[in-house]
Amino acid sequence: MATYIFRRLLVGVLVLIIVSIVVFIAMRILPGDPIYMLITETESKEFTEQQIAQLKQQFGLDKPLAVQYFNWLKGIFEGDLGNSIIHRAPVAGEIIRRLPITLHLGIAAYLVGVCIGIPAGILCAIRRGKVIDTIVTTFSNLGITIPAFWLGLMMIYFFGLYLRWLPVQGYTSPFTDFVLNFRQLIMPVICLALFPIASNTRQTRSSMLEVMRQDYIRTAWSKGLRERVVIIRHALKNGLIPVLTLSAMGFSMIIGGSVVIETVFNIPGMGRLAVTAIINHDYPYVQGIVLIISTFVMFTNILVDLAYGWIDPRIRFS
User: Fold this and answer.
1) Which of 238, 273, 270 is nearest to 254 (CA)?
2) Could you read off the pLDDT of 269-297 as tens digits, one per residue?
3) Helix boundaries (H) for 127-177
4) In whole angstroms, what is the distance from residue 214 CA to residue 222 CA?
5) pTM of the model
């Protein structure tokens, strides 16, 4: 297993390098110049080419792209993600401040998606063709098609502005005010968890129906075992493997989807920071955020692959 983990980590590092190169180049071929974001329109008319060149030199933007990239990569190995061009502050400090907010929102949405989606899928499978199966399947199909940002806007209007039940924006630490934090997260978490709930329900239902047709399940029924024992002890573990894969992908989508949801609900997490940084062409912020998100995705995939062996002992790592 150690060899397998080492090989996966090696491949993961290679993927991170490729992603960082793509993002690094993509940000620099976008129209616009971050230097002109630093100065007002009046100052831009008064600044000479020499003064603008000095600003570019100050932030290392006058060097060739390859040199800029390797200087940034060197800083990563030294624990330095660089400084913001617009705010002139360390990127790592701002990401560390906003990362817990994004993780809080993402993990809460992920847990809701798993805790509701998987039991709903199991229920649909064991009650196939019944009324509950039809209702849950219909709602799961709707959940996959509804855009998260549209749902967020509708919830803001109905629950926030019309009924005035929930706050429409902002984030308060649960250590400061737990009740307010809970109320602020209800709508964003529902928007982020809607797709994972629907997809987990569909995938669990499909996997469980396939497993329930296997010979060993029929043998378990013929032994007179109770339904709960057959489902949990015999069917569930084998049916969870494809669901686990989808759940890992769902976690990645939740972290990525926080970009939209944090913007809609004005939550000061990494997603909103990424949107602001892209608009301002603040390269270091975008590169740092993408690197952090890619690293999370890589480790999530590795942990899921290792979990396969725990769910199904027949799986061997080589």
Assistant:
1) 270
2) 888 888 888 887 788 888 888 888 888 88
3) 131-145, 148-155
4) 13
5) 0.79
